[in-house]
């Protein structure tokens, strides 16, 4: 794997690293100098509106198309100098299944084993193991065209794993799946990562990134608008608050006086206090109420979610600057 030097002099291994990645089609800059550093054994999610360049990034990093500029290493290999070594280290599953519906699931797997130049004995062993792992044994002899969407996606990922890749690109892997199949797919992805596989995920589902990703980057207009953990990104967005509700009007009025900078809701007997929802802030609010001898009936914390982050970073009236902001 490639190695990067941190600001404090320590080094960390990276499954994927890119510096100054650029790609244009005519006058349109699809990727305008993006930097990526993805640790081994982690899930990295790339979010962005349709046309933001997510799939282009996946195609470049998986050697399907070439970049116009940038220093890129995948699996420890220089992508420009040794694309064949990169291909040997990765697996790719797109939003449109590569499964051949005219043959059985087992035949799809064996075909993939042949493409990886496995012996017949090894191909059958790997096929049987993966069909069992992905709960496809009962359907193995049936034409893949008869599979449900979730089964086809499981088969697609099983086919990707035939070559035992350590880095997997999942380009919108749960698009079109029902909620149950999507949750099943999340379990599969978590299982891959627990086995040391690095996952590069693009998705339209913000909940999916929140559930799975160790780090998330939001791509907009060809640039990384922000990057960090889900919690770090949420803290970039204003609007977090604590809501305290009372049943006693006197307690409500007393709390409003004690807390000071609050928004009042006289009808609901509720107060809203700006807050990032940290334990320290909550303790401070409760301590002030205790000091005044006031007891609240209900306290709820409201923090921005990834939907808020996404709209703030990619909407026409941005809450956050569109220049790259990496959260450390």
Structure description:
The protein is α/β, with parallel strands linked by helices. It has two domains: 2-99 and 147-234, Rossmann fold (3-Layer(aba) Sandwich); 241-302, 2-Layer Sandwich (Alpha-Beta Plaits). The protein has eleven helices and 16 strands. The protein has helices at 54-61, 83-89, 105-115, 120-133, 149-160, 179-194, 206-212, 230-234, 249-259, 279-291, 306-314, and strands at 2-5, 11-25, 28-39, 43-47, 69-74, 77-78, 90-93, 167-171, 198-202, 215-220, 223-228, 241-245, 263-265, 270-274, 298-302, 325-326. It has a seven-stranded mixed beta sheet, with helices on both faces. Strands 1, 2, 3, 5 and 6 form a five-stranded antiparallel beta sheet that branches. α3 (105-115) crosses α4, α3 runs parallel beside α5 and α5 packs parallel to α6 (179-194). The longest helix has 16 residues, at 179-194. The protein is elongated and about 80 Å long. The protein starts with a strand and ends with a strand. The model is unreliable at 2-12 and 319-328 (pLDDT under 50).
């Amino acid at each position: 794997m490639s190695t990067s030097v941190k600001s404090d002099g320590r080094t960390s291994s990276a499954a994927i690293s890119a510096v100054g990645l650029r790609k244009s089609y005519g006058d349109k800059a699809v990727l305008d100098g993006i930097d990526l550093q993805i640790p081994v054994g982690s899930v990295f999610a790339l979010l962005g509106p349709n046309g933001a360049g997510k799939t282009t990034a996946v195609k470049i990093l998986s050697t399907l198309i070439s970049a116009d500029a940038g220093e890129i290493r995948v699996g420890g290999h220089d992508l420009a100098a040794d694309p064949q070594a990169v291909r040997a280290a990765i697996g790719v599953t797109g939003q449109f299944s590569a499964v051949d519906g005219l043959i059985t699931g087992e035949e799809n797997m064996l075909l993939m084993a042949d493409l990886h130049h496995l012996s017949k004995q090894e191909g059958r062993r790997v096929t049987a193991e993966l069909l069992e792992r992905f709960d496809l044994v009962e359907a193995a002899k049936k034409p893949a065209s008869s599979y449900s969407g979730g089964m086809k996606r499981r088969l697609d990922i099983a086919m990707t794993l035939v070559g035992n890749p350590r880095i997997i690109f999942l380009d919108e892997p749960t698009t079109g799946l029902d909620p149950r199949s999507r949750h099943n797919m999340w379990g599969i992805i978590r299982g891959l990562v627990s086995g040391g596989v690095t996952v590069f995920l693009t998705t339209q589902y913000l909940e999916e990134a929140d559930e799975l990703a160790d780090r998330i980057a939001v791509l907009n207009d060809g640039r990384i608008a922000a990057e960090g953990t889900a919690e770090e990104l949420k803290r970039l967005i204003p609007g977090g608050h604590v809501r305290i509700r009372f049943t006693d009007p006197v307690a409500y009025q007393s709390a409003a006086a004690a807390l000071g900078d609050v928004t009042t809701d006289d009808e609901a007997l509720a107060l809203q206090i700006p807050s990032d929802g940290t334990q320290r802030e909550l303790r401070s609010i409760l301590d002030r109420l205790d000091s005044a001898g006031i007891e609240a009936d209900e306290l709820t914390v409201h923090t921005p979610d990834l939907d808020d982050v996404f709209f703030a970073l990619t909407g026409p009236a941005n809450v956050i600057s569109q220049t790259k902001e990496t959260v450390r």
